Amino acid sequence: MRLIKKLGLLGLIFSICCLFSVCVFSADSSLEADKELNAGILLLKVGDYDEALEKFLKVLDVDPINAEAYYYLGMTYSQMEDFYKAISYYQKALILNPQLTKIHFQLGVAYYQLKQYANALESLSQAEKYSPEDAMVYYYQASTYYGMKRYYKAVAPFKKVRELDPALTVLSYYWQGVSLFHQGLYNEAQFNLYQVKRLSSDSQLGKSADEFLRAIEKQTKPLSLKASLGVEYDDNVTLQSADDDASTVSDKEDERAVVNLKLAHRTFVEPGEIGISYSFYQSMHQDLTEYNVQGHTGSLYFASNLRPFQPSVQYSYDYYFVDNDEYLAKHTLTPSLNISVFSPNITQVYFQYENLNYLIDVEE
Fold first, then answer.
1. This prediction's pTM
2. Domains of the chain as residue ranges with CATH
3. Distances from the Cα of 155 to the Cαs of 141, 164, 293, 306, 311, in angstroms?
4. How far apart are CA 84 and CA 82, in angstroms?
5. 224 sits in which H/E element
6. Which end of the chain lies in a sparser environment, N or C, as judged by fewer CB atoms within 10 Å?
């Protein structure tokens, strides 16, 4: 009986010793992992990426489920621009520790760099949920929309950037202005780009903003005049102008000179524009002068830019002469709708009504 009691006591002592040894080993391992992790973080900060990788991998040797080590491996590969590896490590870190919410932002940035925009937006949406006051989350959201050419979606988050971080004001104004420029919202774009010039005229952003401002000035000139003169060879002369359908086929060949003139005036009334124009067309054949066509076109249009929808309506009146004789009067009404949700792809829906009044017998 005494022997049994002694054996039981020895077993208890042995168990306690083993437990103590495990605790000491665990504590030592944890201290070693923390030491290597901190050393790796320091190396990462100073840009010694290869050494940093070695330190983080040593952490995993002693602690294979250390989520922070996986996270910093992802950070290191991001700095090395190996975003595929970075994403792999970020995902492992997130599986091990879903509470490590800073991973969502880094995942979003990595997906953005790979132009995997849908994944980027999903990760950045999670990042916004956990860090609603982080300006960089909105910057990359906006940049992702910009990369997708969904410029109308980029404007608001670019504006949010400077509201949260005044240090990013110039960057915010610049990209908001460029996004508005691509939508044709020139007045708003001008305001933002002028702020860039005012705050940072000598910087690269300031110089680029100046180029966009010159482009806006060119685009928004109210009056324009275009003229062209060309020589053509026609092996099947028809009664047509540049915009009309063939009505009579001559089955003859001839050379001709073609003159086009267009005078246009437009007024920008954001979010759209109103325009009026007059076009002149004249063809002059070398031999078949009876097929000379002269056309006059007046048009009025209104176009609106309500991204992603761009409704417009245009009315045109055409009057044609053939061999100096009145030939055709035409009224055209064209309402249309462009939808550009997934730029650069555009869906266009339009209806065209035409009223043709031939002023002479076409058979003549």
1. 0.68
2. 30-219 (1.25.40.10), 224-358 (2.40.128.130)
3. 10, 15, 49, 13, 21
4. 6
5. strand 223-234
6. N
